[in-house]
C-alpha cells in the first residue's frame, strides 16, 4: 500500500505515455464519487520509476511509467483535470514538480498547476490478490466487447450490469445479458490454481479489455471472502474491482431448444441491410426478418417516414418463418461477428434466436449470441 507521505517531487516523464496512463486510470475509476480525495490520482516518483495509482474503494488502478527522477515524493492531485491537461499537450516530455500547495506540470512554454489534495485521507491502493490463470491479451480484447454490449446499463438491477467470468478447465467463459439478449463467449486460458466464477462489472472489464489490446499475456487474480475482489494485471499495469454479489442466471437453458429455421449468411452483409432499413424501423424500433426461398427480406415500417425492404440471399434449413427484432439489438449482435459467416437460428416466437459462427474464429474464441424477438402486438 502506498504510504500517505509527501515529498519535494521533481520528475520528467514522456508526455504521451503519461497521458495515456492517466486517461486509462480515470476511465477505470468511477466519476461519481462525492469525496474529492477518491477522485484523485496518487503520483509517486521513486528512484526506480514513476507510479500512477488511484481508487474509488470499489475499483483501483496502478501503473508504472518511465521517468527521470530528480527528487522523489508522493502527491495526490485531481485525476480528471490532470489527465485532460496531459492529453492536450504536444511536447514530448513534461516536468512535474511540487511548488508549494501545487503540482506544476511544466513544458518549455507553459505551466499548469493543480492543487494538492490531502494524501493523509487517501486509503491507498492494495496489491492484487493471487493469480488464478492467464489469457492472451489480444484474445481477451476481442472476446469482451461483444459480451459487454449485451450487459444492461440499468443499475437498479445490478446483476445484469455485470459479466459472469467462469473457468471451465482450460476455457474461460464470459456471459452477459440485459434480459432481451444474451452473449456467451468461450476463450482459451491457462489456469494456475483453483477455479473462477465471479460477476465483474461490465464497464470495468470492457475498459480493461481495451487497454490490454496488443498485450501478450494478462493475469487474472481473485480472492474470495468478505472482501471478494478480482484483478487483471499486464505489463506494468493493474486494474482491481469488487465483484457483484447478485445471482446470475444459468445460460445453458436458453440454448437448449432446436431452431425452427436456420439461415446461413455473412454477418456483415445482413448487418449492412439492417443498418439501411433501420431508419424505417418505426416507433418501436422493429425490424422484421422474413425468410423466403433462398432469401431473407429485411423490412421496416414507420408511419411518419414510410417503409423499406431489402432482399438478402441466404442459405436456409427448416421452415419459412418471420420474426421481428429491435433494430439496435439485432445490429449489435450481427456486428459482433464482423465478416464471418454465421448461422442464425430462429426458434419459437417467445424464444430467443441464436447466432453462431459457422467457422472457427481467430484465437480460439467461440461466441454465441441470443436475441429475443419482439412479440406481435
From TrEMBL:
Entry-linked SMART domains: POL3Bc
Cell compartment(s), UniProt: Cytoplasm
Any GO molecular function: DNA binding
Pfam families, alphabetized: DNA_pol3_beta, DNA_pol3_beta_2, DNA_pol3_beta_3
Organism domain of life: Bacteria
SUPFAM superfamilies (alphabetical): DNA clamp (SSF55979)
GO BP terms: DNA strand elongation involved in DNA replication
GO terms for cellular component: cytoplasm; DNA polymerase III complex
UniProt keyword terms in alphabetical order: Cytoplasm, DNA replication, DNA-binding, DNA-directed DNA polymerase, Nucleotidyltransferase, Transferase
UniProt xrefs under CDD domains: beta_clamp
DNA polymerase III beta sliding clamp central domain location: 135-250
Domain DNA polymerase III beta sliding clamp C-terminal, chain residue ranges per copy: 257-348
Residue stretches making up the DNA polymerase III beta sliding clamp N-terminal domain: 9-123
Annotated family: Belongs to the beta sliding clamp family.
PANTHER family (UniProt xref): BETA SLIDING CLAMP, DNA POLYMERASE III SUBUNIT BETA
Protein name, as recorded: DNA polymerase III subunit beta
Gene: dnaN
